[in-house]
Amino acid sequence: xxxxxxxxxxxxxxASLLERPGRWDEDLVKNRILWLANCEVxxxxxKFLICAWLxxxxxxxxxxxxxxxxxxxxxxxxCQPGAKVWTLLVSGxxxxxxxxxxxxxxxxxxxxxVIRNDRGLIIVAAALSFNGxxxxxxxxxxxxxxxxxxxxxxxxxxxxxxxxxxGVVGLCNEVNIxxxxxxxxxxxxxxxxxxxxxxxxxxxxxxCNRLAHSLAxxxxxxxxxxxxxxxxxxxxQL
Length: 238
Description:
This protein is an alpha/beta fold. Helix content is 44%, strand content 23%. InterPro entries: RNase_H-like_dom_plant, RNase_H-like_EbsB-rel, RNaseH-like_sf, RNaseH_domain, RNaseH_sf.
């Protein structure tokens, strides 16, 4: 299944779920659920479920993930290597979280990408599936490269890339040395980082990458290559 990039928030199926900011129209929601249950178009169902999931995940993050810490402390910790907790960025910046999963039994690997703005709201999400059996480090490097290319295409800068692939992050920052097949991918990423100077990449804990990991698993299970441009305003209304 292949989904072309689109603004999910413009889809009447999703947008009409909100009667007004912060309130749900219960009857409308029930009607939409009944419509979805009878829908025979798999593409529509998948888009609806993923968008609803992203909205719910973003809403929970806003309500619970940062509770107990002030905004100033979150900003000061942003983009620190080896971060244990997902943190916000300084005003005007964006953060890309990347993760990968592999399934050698079906010769496929998936990449999950999530881009958030400086308020922590999801603005872009992607579930990308690739065919072939490749080493983990190459899969992780290609996932980072795909995320960077999407950010460049959408002109999303300044950008902080976060990955739990310690080796890949080290290679991108010229901390580690490699002579393997991964060099070509790393070289392309580094050349893009030089060209687009408002890009940095840091290592984080896997716990900070849960949504990206879930999207990677979704990609590998469904064999899809999907990029969603999500309206952050829709998320903020929940």
